[in-house]
C-alpha cells in the first residue's frame, strides 16, 4: 500500500515541506511515484521515517542520522551511547537550574516591600545580590540555621529592617575606625567587634555559634559579594575583609569551649 505526501504528513505529524526536505537531503526518498509524478511512500518508507523522527527527537542532526543509516550496526550504538551521556548531563544541569530557581524564589520571599527611596533609607549602599544569596541558600539548604534565618528574615517588618540595618551601620563605623587606627585584628577591640557581629546575627537571623561565625567570616575573604553585605565597596579598604576574618577567628579562639554569657542573655 502506498501513501501520498499529504497522507504521510497528516498521520506522521510532520509538514509536507519537511518530507520534501528529507527527500532532497537523501534521507527519505519515496519508493514510488504516481503517474502524475507525485511522491508515494510505502511501508518501508514509513519505517525509515519513524527512525528519522526517533533520532530527531533525541536531538540528532540530519547529518548524524545520515551517518547512522550508512552503517547502522556501528554508528547507531556508538552515537546513541554518546547522546545518552549528553542527555544525562543535560538532565542534571536542568535539575540543578530548577533547584536554583526554587531557592531563588525562597530568597526573594525574604524581601520587604519598599519604594526605591525607602530602600535606600533602610539599606543605604548595601545591595541585595540575588546570585550570592541563592548560592548560600543552595549551600545551606539542609541546615537548620539557614531555615531559621530565612523564616525570621521573611517575618521582619520594615521597622525591623530599619533597626537591624541601623545596628549594622553603627557596628561598621566602629570596625572601620578600629582598622584605620591600626588596632590589631587579634586585639580586644577587634575581638569585641567580632563578638558583636556574631550576636547581631543571632539576634536577627539565627543562632550563630562560633563555628558558624567562622564559616561566615571565611566567606568574607573568599567571596567579595559576601563582604559587600557587611561593608559596601565604597567604604572598603585593602585588607579589611581579611582583618575582619582574623578578628572573628581570634574571637572564636577566645570563646572556645563554651557559650558566652552575653549570648545566653539573648536567648
In short:
The chain has helices spanning 5-12, 16-24, 43-57, 62-70, 72-108, 116-123, 130-139, 144-155, 158-180, 188-204, 210-222, 224-228, 240-254, 261-266, and strands spanning 3-4, 32-33, 39-41. It has 267 residues and is mostly helical. Helix 5 packs across helix 7 (130-139).
Describe this structure in words.
The protein is mostly helical and 267 residues long. The protein is built from 14 helices and 3 strands. Strands 1-3-2 form a 3-stranded antiparallel β-sheet. Helix 5 packs across helix 7. The longest helix is centred in the middle third of the chain and has 37 residues, at 72-108. The chain is rod-shaped.
Offer a few descriptive terms:
3 strands, mainly alpha, three-stranded antiparallel β-sheet
Largest sheet: 3 strands, antiparallel
- Number of DSSP strand runs: 3
Strand content: under 5%
H/E order of the elements? EHHEEHHHHHHHHHHHH
Low-confidence stretches: 258-267
Summing up helix and strand content along with how strands pair, one would put the structural category as mainly alpha
Percent of residues in helices comes to over 70%
Strand order, sheet with most strands: 1-3-2
How far apart are the termini?
A: 84 Å
Report the mean per-residue pLDDT as an integer. 82
Overall geometric form = rod-shaped
| Rg over CA atoms | 32 Å
Number of helical runs? Answer: 14
Amino acid at each position: 500500500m502506498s501513501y501520498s505526501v499529504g497522507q504521510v504528513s497528516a498521520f506522521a505529524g510532520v509538514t509536507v515541506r519537511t518530507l520534501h526536505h528529507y527527500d532532497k537531503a537523501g534521507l527519505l526518498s519515496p519508493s514510488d511515484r504516481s503517474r502524475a509524478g507525485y511522491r508515494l511512500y510505502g511501508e518501508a518508507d514509513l519505517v525509515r521515517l519513524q527512525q528519522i523522527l526517533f533520532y530527531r527527537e533525541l536531538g540528532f542532526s540530519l547529518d548524524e542520522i545520515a551517518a547512522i543509516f550508512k552503517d547502522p550496526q556501528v554508528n547507531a550504538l556508538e552515537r546513541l551511547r554518546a547522546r545518552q551521556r549528553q542527555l544525562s548531563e543535560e538532565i542534571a544541569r536542568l535539575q540543578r537550574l530548577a533547584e536554583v530557581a526554587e531557592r531563588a524564589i525562597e530568597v526573594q520571599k525574604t524581601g520587604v516591600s519598599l519604594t526605591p527611596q525607602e530602600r535606600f533609607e533602610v539599606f543605604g549602599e548595601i545591595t541585595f545580590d540575588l546570585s550570592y544569596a541563592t548560592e548560600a541558600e543552595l549551600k545551606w539548604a539542609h541546615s537548620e540555621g539557614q531555615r531559621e534565618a530565612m523564616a525570621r528574615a521573611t517575618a521582619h517588618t520594615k521597622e525591623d529592617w530599619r533597626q537591624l540595618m541601623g545596628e549594622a551601620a553603627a557596628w561598621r563605623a566602629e570596625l572601620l575606625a578600629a582598622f584605620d587606627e591600626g588596632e590589631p585584628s587579634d586585639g580586644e577591640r577587634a575581638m569585641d567587634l567580632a563578638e558583636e557581629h556574631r550576636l547581631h546575627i543571632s539576634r536577627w537571623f539565627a543562632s550563630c555559634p562560633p563555628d558558624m561565625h567562622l564559616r561566615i567570616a571565611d566567606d568574607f575573604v573568599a567571596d567579595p559579594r559576601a563582604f559587600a553585605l557587611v561593608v559596601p565597596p565604597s567604604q572598603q579598604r585593602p585588607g579589611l575583609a581579611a582583618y575582619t576574618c582574623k578578628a572573628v577567628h581570634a574571637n572564636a579562639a577566645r570563646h572556645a569551649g563554651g557559650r558566652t554569657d552575653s549570648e545566653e542573655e539573648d536567648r
